[in-house]
Structure formats: structure tokens, C-alpha cells
Amino acid sequence: MPTCLSKHYEAVETGKPFKPNWLCLYCDHVMMSDSNRRKLEHLLKIGTTVKGCPHSTRVLNEEDLLELKEEHALMEANLASSRRKRENKRKAVETLTVPERPRARQAALSFAIQNKDRLDMEYARMLFMSAAKTGFMDSEYVSKFFGTQFQYTPPSRKVIMGPLLDHLFKDTQQKVEAACNFKDLDSLCTLTMDAWQSPTNAHIRNYMLVFDHVTFFCTAKYGGSARATAQNIADEAIEVIADVGDTNIAAVATDNASAETTSWDLIREVYNYILCTGCTAHGASLLFKTVCNHTWAKNLIEKATKLAKFMKNHSYTQAELKRRTADNSETGTSLSIILHGETRFAAVYYTLKRLGELRGILREIVVSDGFGERNFDDAATITAICNDGGFWTNIEKLRLYLKPLKCLIKLFDHDTHTTEHVFPGMLEVLEKWQDNEADVPSAFKNHCLREHRPRNEWMLFDIHMTAYALSPKYHDHGVFNNNSVMSGLKKILRFFCPNTAAYTLALTEFAEFKNTPAALFDGVDSISSKAWWQLHGAQWPNLQPVAVRVFCIGTTSCPSERNFSTWSHIWSMKANRLKFETANKLVYIYFNLRALQRLAEGTSRPDTVSADWLGDHIDE
Description:
This protein is an alpha/beta fold. It has helices at 3-6, 36-44, 56-59, 62-95, 111-129, 134-138, 140-150, 157-180, 230-244, 258-270, 280-291, 295-313, 315-328, 348-357, 359-366, 369-373, 379-386, 389-412, 422-435, 442-459, 462-470, 483-496, 500-514, 529-536, 544-550, 558-562, 564-570, 580-601, and strands at 9-12, 21-24, 30-31, 189-197, 203-210, 215-224, 249-253, 275-277. Strands 6-5-4-7-8 form a 5-stranded mixed β-sheet. Strands 1-2-3 form a 3-stranded antiparallel β-sheet, with no helix packed on it. Strand 2 (21-24) and strand 3 (30-31) form a beta hairpin. It is globular. The protein starts with a helix and ends in a 19-residue tail after the last helix.
């Protein structure tokens, strides 16, 4: 309950856990509803749903009334926003019409059968978009429900997973192709790929088409028992590029495994104008891992993990944690411990952060009578950790020192292209570590600085230097004396410029671009760098097409990895008899119809990321 409301009501126990009634302190009116809206309407005497308080106007001062009115206005705005979003979602779903069911003699069918065909397609799409299992399709209860309530007989599983699936798959392909708009010469994408292992231990490689503002699932390739060698990876990628259209792809982004990086040369032998890059998010995560291997950090993380696992894995501590955090929260929201995955190296940051937030409550729990009565095996160790002031001071120092790198990893782990932020981002991390505002031990600081240099050289490509140099967001950064940036820029210009004359002119135009008055770059954070070059780049005719192509290039394979969750949702251990071809069509429909729906709603992701990625307002 908001603070502006809680001081006007008192909870009255009803004998039911977590279900109190609420007593108005001014008129003795008892509300059985837990709705904050109804409590506001009672005090403000508005609406017809609840009885108004006869004394509130006289008792409440102007400040209290203003607070209540502001809270009610906020509720109304949130309600209107929610209704607007639901309406946009409804309209978006309506725009994604289902195709007619294919029949040899569609025109000769009666109205009833035509209506049944439309319902069948709608029914099949509903099942695919909710990832319903085949047991639901075959259920007699489902057939009885639809037959009794709606006089509708659903199609059989064989029909749904056969002709209806095929037809909806083809229709979704047509919608995706229209949204890609490859007829526009500037509509280029980055092809990302990464591998996944199915419930049947099949090796599957996931391919995604990443555009400025939307990501589509392209296809997946089943490797069978074949090893993931560079040649096999390259052959698959070349086949996918040919299907999409080599002129529609600006770059290929892969993981940083040796077989993946070796495949780049084989891909470029066929398509020498397509860039191949590694995953910057993976490279930054490896840097996070190596800096945390220092003895000081490692010991702290081991203690923090031990404490987090203990509190999360015991039912008493978990229940106490939720109860105490809910009591201390104005909204009654409970918090729990965050544990990091073994391969998600940077996620330990969130474990440290949550422990710091719960420090006082954890100390209260370990000194409580209930904790002592249970005689936990590690009780003494956990109590010692909680009462160690140095431990809490040091994990906060470690968290603050790692924050710039964690924010940078989150920036890279984004579908929106962040290529232009890679070079300045790694440089800013280095500067923050050198300043050492967190005051970590000098030995740990020196270890981090030593690890930063080789990892930075390993993960930076010429495309990162070029995107940084051409970015209007970093227009005021001087780069002419930076040899690495200028060298990378020249290599990319030679790569994309059709001849030596165009290359020379592009270099001259780059100098003009960097010397352009700052007024041309006002409001540059509100649009993508690609859009800026499309709007203002005509004055540099040799540089503009290179810049537009550069800002169509993403350097992370995270979109492919994120789509693994869709695969595991559809092709799980409980649905492991699905054939690969069927699963591929289901994932295609499930992922891409959602992407198309977001485009129609206007809720698709933004096409740009602010250069102020480390500001205090940024969500870590």
C-alpha cells in the first residue's frame, strides 16, 4: 500500500493469512477489498463503487488531500496506459490475419465450411503461439468443450501439425519478407548464429536476422552426428546466406570459439564483401571472469556465494527473507536472493548487489531464535560471514569496481546494434579502473589493468574502430592522432569502397565530416547513427554508403543465444518426439509472429542506444 494511504487505514485481522480487512481511521468504515483504488475513492468521496468517508474533508489537511489526489491521478494514468496497450495489442493481432485454409476447390465450398476453415486456421495459430503440446490437441476434454459450448469440432492433431502448420509457416514467411523490405537498398541486416543442443542431443545451429529495430528468426540447421568443424559451419552459413540473399546481409556475427572464427575465412572466400565478426558480449564476459579470478575477489565471491546459497536453499531462511522484506517495503513487495549461473560470469554482480541490499535483514535472521533452534550445519560459518563488517565493505567495493564492466556487458548483450560503443566503452572501463574510486586493493586493481589490455586487443575489430570514427554520437572525439582507430577506418573503407579513387575521396570526406559544426549533431541521441547518415550524409557521397552499411552491422551473437529459450520452450524433454523440421517451423511461427505483433503495436525495441550507457540513471 502506498505511504499516502497506509497512514489513513489500519489492518484488521480476519483469521485468514495475508487477508486482512482495512479500517478507515476517521469513520470506522471497514473495507474487505484490498484495492488501493477503492481506499482512495473512499477518502476522496469519488466514484459510486464504495461509500465515501463523511469526515475525510474535515480531518485531512491540504497536503494529505493533494497527495491522495496525485496518487489517484497516477492510478488513472496507469489504467489508461494499460487499456491503451491492450487496445494496441488487440489491433496488432487483428492486422496479423490468418491465411485461408488451402483447398483444391475453395470457391465451391459452402459458407459454413468456409467459416469452419477460418476457425481451423485461427485455432491452429492459437495453439502454435501458446506452444501447446500435442496432448492438448488430442484431448477429448478439449473437443467436448468446444463442441458443447461453441458447436465447433477442432481439427485433429494430424491436420494441425500437417497442412495447417505448413500453410501458416509459409504465410509467416511472406509477412517476415515484407517486413524485412529488402527492396530498400539500405535495409541490410546482420546474420547471427550460435549452436544449441536439443533434448535428443542433436546439434542445432540457430540463425537470426538482426535489423535496426527488430530481430527475426531466420532458420536453424540440424547437424546430426557431424562435428561442428569450421568447414561444416561455413557450409551451413553459406547456404543460409544464399537463401536470404547475399546482398541483403552486411555481416555475420558468431561466437568466439575457434571453429567459428576459422569459418570466417571460408565464408569470405565465397562472399568477400560480407564482414565476419566475433561476439563482443562474450569477450567482455570473459574479461569479467578473468578479473574475478584474483585471490582477493575470488575469496569474496566464494563467501558471498556460500551465503547466498544457504539463504536460498533453506526453507526457513527463504520464508523469513520474503516476510521481512515485504514488511519493510511500502508496496509489500518481497525480495529473494539472486544466484548466478556457472557460465554467466558477470551475473555474480547481481548476487553481490542483492546481498548488499539485504545486509541488515540477513543479520536479523541469523540472530533470530528460529535460526538458532534449527541447528543448521553451517550456522556458525554463515553467522560469522554476516557479522563480518570487512566482508560487507569489501563486496561493496568489488561491486562498484566491476559496475562499469557489467554495464558494458549489458550494453553489448542487446539486439540493437552497439558496434559504435565497443571501442569507447572498453576505454571508459579502463579509465574507471585506473581512477579506482571504489578503493579496491592495489594488487587487484593492477591485476584488472593487466587483464584488460590483451582482452581488449583480442575482442576489438576494424569495424569497431570505424563505427566509432563515423558515429555522430562521438563526433567531438578527436581520432586523427589515434593510430588504431585510423588504421581500422582505412581498412574498412578499402574493404567497402569500389576503387582507389572512391577510397581517397571517402578519406577526404571523413575529414570534412569530423570538422562539421556541432549544430548539425543536435539531438543525435534520439535517432540511430544509420538514420542520421541517411538524413545528413548526402553531402559526403562517397562516405555515406559506407557509413550506412557500417551501422547495419552488429557484433554480438546474443540474439541467437536468446532464441534458445524459444527452442527449449517448444522442443523440451516433454516434447522430445518432435521432428526437427516440425520444431523449426513451430519456432519460426512462435518467434516471428510475436516480432511482427510488436512492430504493429509500435512496441518494438528502439533502433539506438544512448552513448551515456554508464550514467547513474542506467538500470544495471
